[in-house]
Every structure is written in structure tokens, then in C-alpha cells.
Predict the 3D structure of the following.
Amino acid sequence: MSDAIIVEGLAKRFAEVEAVAGISFRVRQGELFGFLGPNGSGKSTTINLLTGLARPDAGAIRIGGIDCRYRPGAAQHLTGAAQHLIGVVPDESNLYPELSGFDNLCFCAALYGMAKREREARARELLAEFGLSEAAGRRFGGWSKGMKRKLTIAAGIIHRPAILFLDEPTTGIDVASARQVRQLIADLHRGGTTIFLTTHYIEEAERLCDRIAFIVSGRIVRIDTLEQLLKPLQARQVVRIACDTPLNGIENGLDGAFPGRAFTCPEPGVIRVEADGPVRVGAIVRFLEERGIEVAEARRIRPSLEEIFVRVTGIEADVMQRERGKP
Amino acid sequence: MKPWIAFWNILLKDMRTYYLKPPNISWGLIFPLAWTGMFFIKSGSGLEGILALLPGVVAISILFGTTSMLAVTVTFEKKHRSFERLLLAPIPLELLMLAKTGGAILFGVANAFVPVIMAAFLADLSQVNWGPFISAVFLIAVASTFLGLFIAVAVSEVFEAQTFSNFFRFPMIFLCGLFFPIADLPALLQPLAYLLPLTYGADVLHGAVHGGHAMPVALDLIILGGFCLGLFAISLGNVRRRWIS
């Protein structure tokens, strides 16, 4: 599989702030590549550098095999051919509020040189595909946030780009719209579009991405497939036991009765069991019930990307979620 | 040919979205009418005074219409990030900026003819030399629009654009020989007049309407053209430096 995006030693500084500190990575053709990091980690600056909205201080960029190295004197480091290959969906809808949905899409298509008949047909096709046909004639400014985000994605793919940059596509929209947007992204991925996705939401990256890069303070601290990222946690078994009666420090007794297992109480009425081998839940439940503790539920916890993210970056996952609220 | 599809559609969109909106009548109709009325009453002259006022009113209508509209629309689009959409499109930056300014240039030219039409009802315009007049109107519109672009690129807020515009516009009303000859200015200020593009446009308009110009028309138009190229080049450089930084 060839590489759709190649980045080597990309760097960008704003005054005293090193926004992107010499990062290197490759995005394969047809891949959904996640770029995960907290606010100010360099996600949006990286997208701006890759799409030509910001000029790199150093480093090399290849988009679809086209060298996009900065050429002094040129308006942008991306050539017209590279700009044709990419579509960009910004983190905020930046379409024209006074135009209708249909006119917005037709205008965006015209920017890519599409003829009138072609752009009108494509606009109708996308409006139908994204479930926006009914609102097509209404002013974009009056649309809901979720609808706006969907139209912004439609505008990003109006010219059928091979590579799509999505900057935090589900931030600030309601749960139902976020689910629809994720489905649209998954559909585009299935259709063969290479997708570069930045997100705050660990679970979103986990659900959608083939490979994920963790970026912190302008540096990529880890890139791998979800499977490889989770591997260190696969052998570790974690079980969550929810109880209906007070625990009264029972975890100390459990430690003694079940050596080799780590017992903690992360919240009232909940016991978390961790072990490097299998956890025999039946024996623990019997132990608890014999001591008058009623067990309501016991279930194995799947290892999550969140744990890996916390381990690798040292940033608590809830910090990321607090930054803009859960999707 | 494909970039021209983008060029044409950006121009059409701006015309529809900004320039053909009813509130803009304030620049095209009310503004020239107010200026004409004010100067006409102040001068105390008869209808023959209309011809002396016309070049200044035409120039001022173009200047205020174009600088205000362009500085505001471009700053607005930049602030709301819709300008990014244009920068991402495969269009040469020069063509993109010409498309963005094209609407304002046409708006400025249209504004210029509002006082002309009004004057046609009150005075005899048969002696007007229309060739130089139209050339000057076009070049003043281009220079004023590029001045608006220069202002738009230099600021980040819409209110800053309006305030910054006034630093250029009001001195030009006073210094550029719109309503009285530059020779009547204090000697210290006279050199300043020749640093401003409107001086040359106003000189051509005066020459075309009542024959009272100070410099050869061709020289005026060449210098005005030079201002247009210079302002456009500086603005492009600023866009590259500030907006694709």
C-alpha cells in the first residue's frame, strides 16, 4: 500500500511557542489515521501545515506523491495539483451563512473548477446522501449545528478528494449528530478515501481509526495500529464488581484471600480486580457473599485506548474530555 | 480555463452577498446625494457650480464605497474563516484576490455614476470628456479597492477596518484637490497630496468635466495605474506573510 501523506521533520514555531516540533509520519492510502491530543498539542497547526494554510519552518511534506516543500516566493507550498487531491473540513463550519445549503455546495464545487451542470448534480447527490435535501433551499445560517457540520463535510468532499482532513468533526454537536457524522466518516473510509482525523475524543479514535498518533506539545509520542497500542494491556485482566451493600474495607481481606490479584475500590460499592492472568470471578463473588456483601454485577473490562493514552502521554483522559465536553 | 470558473463564481457570490444588498444604497445613493447637497449649499453658487463639484463627489463616492465594503467584507470572511475555504482552493493567489476585489471595483464604478446621473438632471454634461472620465473612474475604483484590501489585510477585526480606513480616507478628502485646488493648500502639505492616489484621479476628473487639470492626463493615469499595481503587490505580500504564515 503506497503512502498518501508523507511528513518528515515538520516544524512550526509561533514566537516563543514551538507548535510542531519536527514530527514525522506516514499515512497510507485508504487509511483512517487518527491524530489524538489535548488542546494546544499541535493538531490543528499540523493540519494547517499539511493543507497549505500555514507555512512550515522546516521539514518536508508529500501529498499524494507531490512534493509540497515550501518554495520561497510561491504563495503556498501546496501546488494546485496537491490542492485538488485534498479536502478539508475545519473544526468550525465556515460556509457562508447567507447562502442556502445548495448554493454553498455549488460555490465550493466552483472553487475546484467544476462546471455548472456537474456541480449542481454533485450538490444534489451529496445533499441526498447526507440527509439534507429538505433543508437544501434554506439559509445555511439558520441550520442546526449538526446539520451545519454535515454540510461542511459534504463541502469538503464536493470535488471527490482522495485525501480528507477532518479537524475535530464531532466537537460541539449533539450525540445523535455526532453518531451520524461518525457513520459518514466510516462510510467515506469504506469508499476508499484516505482520512486524516484529529480528535479530542479517545473513544472516537478507538472506534474509527486504523492507526493512531498521540501528539503532545507538538511532538508525536507514539504511532501505531489500535491492536498494537492495546497489546500491552491484552494480557492484563480487569474485572469490575458492583455491589449493592457497603464494602467496609473488604478489599484488604480480598488481597489476603486471592494473592496475585490487585483489588481497589475506585468508587463506593465498586471493586476493581486486576491480574496478569485470568480472574476467577466465581470465587471472588462467593467470598463476598459469604461476608454479607450482595454482588449486583461482575464484568470484564476490555482494555481501552484511554489507558494507553494516559500511560504514553501522562495526560488523564478526562482532561481531554473536559476541554470541550463529551461528544 | 478552470480557475476562471472559480474567479467568476467568487465574483458573482460577492456581488450577490454583499454589493447588491439594499442597505448598500447608503454608499451608492445617499452618500453622494448628501455630499453634493452639502457642498452645493455651502458654495452658494447656482446650478453652474454642479460641474465644479462633480469630480470631487464622484471621487469621494468611489473612495468611501470601495474601501468600506472591501475592508469590511474581507475582514469579516477572514474572521469567520470562510476566507480559508478560498485559500484552500486550487486558484492562484493573484487570481483569488482579483476575484475578491472585482466586486468592489464594479461597485465603485457604479457608485461613481450615481452623482453623474443626478448631475445630468441639473447641469449640462455635454462638454464632459468621457474617455478620460471613465478611465479615471475605473482607476480610482481599482486604487481605492486595493487600498481597502491593504487595510483589510492589516487588521483582524471589522471595527478596526473601519477605523483604520478613516486614517486614509479623511486626509484624502482634504489633501487630494477634490473640492479646491492643491495649490490652495498650505505649502507644507502640498507634497503630501502627491503621495496619495486620489490626487491623480481627481485631477483627471476635473480636467474631463471642466478642463481644469494641473498635470497631463496621461501622466495622471500612469501614476494612478502605478499606485494600483503597488497597492495590489503590497497587499498580496501581506496576505502571504500574515494569512499563510
In short: The radius of gyration of chain A is 24 Å. Chain A touches chain B through 29 residues (CB under 8 Å).
